[in-house]
Design the sequence.
């Protein structure tokens, strides 16, 4: 596996400065949440750092990588290829950076949509991406506070926000996000 310095260098070469700052901020937020929830801090740091490693690739580049890997795309991903940056990021993390830890790879893969039965690390990266200190939107402070009290409740609220936003944009909802929300609602008793 690459060292953290090598990963950082890759990000410096492949991301805009604002996206690099975001990735560093997600990494720091993930470490803070990992400390609270008893998750492996190094895994959280790496997954947070690398989660957006292909964010600046074009839709055509993302689709080409899926085609090269013979990955069958669902209709939502074909209509909105930018959603693929989680999946492609996990491929780059494995094939280029030598990250083979499945939990880290899954946290990178599902940080855009979530999914049913997420691991603690997956939840941490998803919410850290959503609430890191550079993010500014109505309700972010409430979500930050909730994330340190009840990770599942924070995820449900973030899924609700995302779903409302996607609907307001008249875009397709990814089934993984719906499954993730429904799973947590059932698990938390509504």
Sequence:
């Amino acid at each position: 596996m690459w060292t953290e310095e090598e990963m950082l260098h890759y990000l410096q070469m492949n991301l805009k400065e604002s996206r690099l700052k975001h990735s560093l901020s997600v990494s720091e937020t993930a470490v803070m949440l990992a400390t609270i929830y008893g998750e492996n801090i190094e895994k959280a740091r790496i997954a947070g750092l690398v989660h957006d490693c292909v964010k600046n690739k074009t839709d055509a580049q993302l689709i080409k990588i899926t085609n090269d890997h013979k990955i069958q795309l669902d209709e939502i991903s074909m209509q909105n290829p930018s959603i693929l940056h989680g999946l492609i990021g996990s491929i780059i993390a494995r094939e280029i950076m030598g990250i083979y830890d499945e939990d880290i790879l899954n946290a990178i893969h599902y940080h855009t949509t979530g999914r049913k039965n997420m691991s603690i690390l997956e939840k941490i990266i998803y919410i850290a991406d959503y609430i890191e200190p550079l993010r500014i939107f109505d309700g972010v402070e409430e979500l930050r506070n909730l994330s340190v009290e009840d990770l599942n409740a924070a995820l449900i609220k973030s899924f609700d926000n995302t779903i409302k936003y996607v609907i307001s944009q008249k875009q397709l909802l990814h089934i993984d996000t719906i499954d993730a929300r429904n799973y947590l609602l059932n698990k938390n008793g509504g």
Remarks:
- The CA atoms of residues 92 and 187 lie 33 Å apart.
- The chain has eleven helices and no strands.
- The domain at 4-188 is CATH 1.10.3210.10 (Hypothetical protein af1432).
- The chain has a mean pLDDT of 96.
